[in-house]
Amino acid sequence: MKNPMALLLLLTILISLQSFSAFSYEFQVGGTKGWIVPPANDSKIYNDWASENRFQPGDAIRFKYKKDSVMEVTEEDYKKCNSTHPTFFSNTGNTVFRFDHPGLFYFVSGVSGHCDKGQKMIIKVMSPDESSSHGGKSSAADLPLGVSKLVFAQFVLCYAASVLY
Length: 165
Ligand SMILES: *[C@@H]1O[C@H](CO)[C@@H](O)[C@H](O)[C@H]1NC(C)=O
Ligand SMILES: *[C@@H]1O[C@H](CO)[C@@H](O)[C@H](O)[C@H]1NC(C)=O
Hints:
This protein is an alpha+beta fold.
């Protein structure tokens, strides 16, 4: 019979998808635009971008840029655009920063004047509890429901086939 094999394949795919979502994820900061000085009329692009995404411990963000740099700073230094003592610095043009704990992370450009023009960003990394009480839990709950629907459909089909033939 073809159908049980197809179901098995589907289940395997679904299960691997589900466990895949538990792995860490990498985000590219600012999407395709990368890490740039924002346009004058749109200086909040990075915090807008950050608020559209959900970050968890283990996730990473990638900064792509030219002739610029990335710094992680304290909240106070973020507010003042003070880049004199960052806790993290990189200017390779392709920087990956991995979040090792939940909480707030503050990033600025280390190039003079860029942070003042809005090249800065706050990232909120959710604790695993927080994130599962939002998006995570509902998608996990959807999956078994989808599977049981499929199993039910399969059962109905098999039953119909056995009655007909
Ligand atoms: C900013 O200005 C550019 C060109 O002047 C325009 O194309 C763009 O739509 C503006 N963006 C916003 C958010 O106003
Ligand atoms: C930046 O921070 C350092 C150390 O806290 C301080 O000495 C310096 O004056 C600050 N610079 C500005 C521009 O606030």
